[in-house]
Write a structure and sequence with these properties.
The protein has about 525 residues and is α+β, with helices and mostly antiparallel strands. Among the domains are: about 100 residues, no CATH class; about 100 residues. It is about 15% helix and about 30% strand. The chain is globular and about 85 Å long. The termini are far apart.
C-alpha cells in the first residue's frame, strides 16, 4: 500500500494506512467530547465513559489473550492495528476521561471556591427581601433546593412552601419538603413529606407540586422514581395528602401517567416515559384544576401534555381521582418539524380574561415558544415563537424555565433570562460568553442569568393574546457559582403569591438558597407593552 501511495515503503514496519485507526481515535474523542458537553447528568456521563472504557480494554486484551491479534510493539498488519491498538488506546483515553469527569462531579463542601466574600454571605448577592431557606450542610442532604412552589394554606392564614431537595441535583436522592410562614417573611424549618433519606434505599420523590381542594385537603403530587434514577423521574405520579393543613401526611395510591408506551408499573422499566410537572396548577374557566407537564421519551425529547383533576375538589383519596389527559387526541404540543431539536418543555399556564388558556414553554431554539387553547385544553394551536407583540421582536431565552404569572391588576409578568447564547453557538458557531472556571456543567444548562421580567397585557383581538414590555433585569448572581452543583443560575423554577396585600416572587438562587423578592410598583415601573 505504501508503495502504491508514495512509491516507497517506510522503514521500521510503519504503514501509511495507519491513518484509519488514527481517524477512529479522533472520532471517539469527538463523541466523548459531545457526551461531556451534553445534557446528561454527571453520574450518567461517568458511567457511560467507564463502561465504554472497560469494554474496549477487555476486548483489546481479550484479542491478545486469545491470540487473535496479539499485542506487539510495532504494527505490521492492518487488521491488528484496527483491533487491539484501537481498542486498548481508546480504553485508556475513555477511562482517563471518566476519572476526570468523576472528580469534577464530586460536590465541593460549602460550594465553589475562591469566593470574594464569606460563603455565609453569598445568599445576599441577589439582594433578596425574604429568606426562606439556607442549606445547613452536606450531612443534612440539602445542598440542592429547587422547584420552589409557594401557596396559601387552606385552613389558616399561612403560606406553605413546597420544594424538591437533595444532596446534589441528579444524584438520585430527591425528596419533597414543606415549610410554613404566618407572615410570609419568617419561615419554619422544612418538614419532610416523602423521598430518599440519607443512607437509605428509599425511592425518590421528585418535583413535587401542590393542589388544594375546596374541601381543604392538600395533595402533594410528585414523580415517584427508584433511588438513583437519573433526574429523579419516572412515568409514575406519586401522591401524599394532608387533612390538617400540611402538618401530617398520608401516602396515597400511585397513578400511571398516560403514555404512548406500555404502562410503566415497574419504576425500573425500560418502557418508562418520564414526566415532570414543575409549575403550580391553575384552575380553568370552569374552576377545574389543570396541570401542564413535560413527557420525555428515553432519548430525552420532550413534549407537552396536560392533566385535569376532575373530582379533586371532592377530596377523594388519590386512588379515586378522576384525571382527564389532554389534549384529547393524545398528540402533544411540539415544535414544527423544521425546528430541530423539536422538543419543547416545562409549560407555564395562565387563564386569559376571556377564558382561553395560554402557555409558555422552554426550548433550545434561543426563544420562548407559546400556544393557546380555546376549549379548556382539549386542543391547542400549533406552537409559535413568543414575541413582544404581533409580528414583533422574538423573546430570547436559554434552555430554562420561562413562567408567566397573573398579577393582581389583571396584567401578567414573564420571568426569563433574555439571552440566546447557547442557540447561536449551536446554530452559527458564535463564541459563548466566558463562565466562571468552577462551573462544571455543559453550556446547554448555563447562561440562566441574569433574571429579567416583562409585563404583559391582554390583547383580545390580537393573534398573540398577551403583548409584553421591554425586559427589565431584577436578579443576578454576578456569575458566581455556589453549592455542590456549582451553578450560577437564578430564578429557575420560581413561583408567585399574593398574600396579605403583598405580591412576592419566590425564587431559587443557584438552586441552593430559597429567597423572595417583593413585586412592587418600583419593580414594575416603566414596563408598559406596546399600544
Amino acid at each position: 500500500m505504501d508503495t502504491f501511495l508514495m512509491g516507497k515503503a517506510n522503514g521500521g514496519g510503519w504503514v501509511a494506512i495507519n491513518c484509519i485507526p488514527t481517524a477512529a481515535h479522533t472520532i471517539w474523542g469527538v463523541l466523548a467530547g459531545k457526551l461531556l458537553l451534553g445534557p446528561r447528568s454527571p453520574r450518567s456521563k461517568v458511567v457511560i465513559l467507564l463502561a465504554c472504557g472497560l469494554v474496549f480494554m477487555f476486548s483489546g486484551y481479550g484479542l491478545d489473550w486469545l491470540n487473535i491479534t496479539p499485542i506487539i510493539k510495532r504494527i505490521r498488519q492492518i487488521v491488528r492495528d484496527l483491533s487491539w491498538e484501537m481498542l486498548i488506546m481508546n480504553s485508556r483515553c475513555l477511562l482517563s476521561l471518566a476519572l476526570s469527569a468523576w472528580l469534577l462531579s464530586i460536590p465541593v463542601p460549602g460550594g465553589a471556591v475562591e469566593f470574594p466574600e464569606p460563603m455565609e454571605k453569598e445568599w445576599l448577592r441577589s439582594d433578596p427581601d425574604i429568606v426562606v431557606y439556607l442549606p445547613r450542610g452536606a450531612e443534612h442532604n440539602d445542598g440542592d433546593n429547587e422547584h420552589f412552589l409557594v401557596f396559601q394554606a387552606p385552613k389558616s392564614e399561612e403560606l406553605l412552601a413546597m420544594w424538591t431537595q437533595s444532596s446534589v441535583e441528579d444524584h438520585g436522592d430527591n425528596h419533597v419538603v414543606l415549610a410554613r410562614s404566618s407572615d410570609g417573611e419568617k419561615w419554619s424549618e422544612p418538614q419532610w413529606i416523602h423521598g430518599t433519606h440519607k443512607g437509605t434505599s428509599e425511592p425518590q420523590a421528585s418535583w413535587g407540586f401542590p393542589v388544594v381542594s375546596r374541601q381543604g385537603r392538600i395533595y402533594c403530587f410528585y414523580s415517584s422514581a427508584a433511588q438513583g434514577a437519573e433526574a429523579g423521574v419516572s412515568g409514575v405520579l406519586g401522591a401524599h395528602f394532608s387533612d390538617d393543613n400540611g402538618h401530617t401526611w398520608t401516602k396515597g395510591a400511585e397513578t400511571i401517567v398516560r403514555s404512548t408506551l406500555e404502562d410503566p408499573t415497574d419504576l425500573n422499566s425500560e418502557e418508562t416515559e418520564f414526566f415532570i410537572v414543575w409549575q403550580k396548577p391553575i384552575r380553568d374557566r370552569q374552576g377545574r384544576v389543570l396541570a401542564g407537564y413535560t413527557q420525555w421519551t428515553k432519548d430525552w425529547v420532550g413534549s407537552i401534555y396536560f392533566m385535569r383533576f376532575d373530582n379533586i375538589d371532592e377530596g377523594p383519596d388519590p386512588g379515586d381521582l378522576k384525571i382527564t389527559w389532554l389534549p384529547d387526541d393524545g398528540k402533544p404540543i411540539k415544535l414544527p418539524r423544521y425546528v430541530q431539536p423539536s422538543g419543547c418543555e416545562e409549560p407555564s399556564i395562565v387563564l386569559l380574561p376571556d377564558g382561553r388558556l395560554f402557555t409558555t414553554m422552554r426550548t433550545t431554539t434561543g426563544y420562548i415558544w407559546y400556544s393557546v387553547s380555546d376549549d379548556d385544553g382539549h386542543h391547542w394551536r400549533d406552537a409559535e415563537v413568543l414575541r413582544d407583540r404581533d409580528n414583533g421582536q422574538p423573546i430570547k431565552q436559554p434552555h430554562a424555565s420561562c413562567p408567566v404569572y397573573p398579577l393582581r391588576d389583571v396584567r401578567f409578568m414573564l420571568v426569563y433570562h433574555n439571552n440566546d447564547y447557547y442557540a447561536r453557538n449551536k446554530l452559527y458557531g458564535e463564541a459563548l460568553p466566558e463562565n466562571h472556571p468552577n462551573i462544571p456543567i455543559g453550556p446547554i444548562y448555563c447562561y440562566r442569568r441574569p433574571a429579567h421580567i416583562a409585563v404583559g397585557e391582554f390583547r383580545p383581538q390580537a393573534h398573540q393574546p398577551i403583548w409584553f414590555s421591554e425586559p427589565k433585569q431584577i436578579l443576578d448572581t454576578d456569575g458566581m457559582p455556589v453549592g455542590p452543583k456549582r451553578t450560577d443560575e437564578i430564578a429557575t423554577y420560581p413561583s408567585v403569591t399574593d398574600f396579605k396585600g403583598k405580591e412576592v416572587l419566590w425564587y431559587p438562587d443557584r438552586k441552593h438558597f430559597l429567597l423572595g423578592k417583593y413585586i412592587d410598583d418600583e419593580m414594575l415601573s416603566g414596563l408598559d407593552p406596546a399600544p
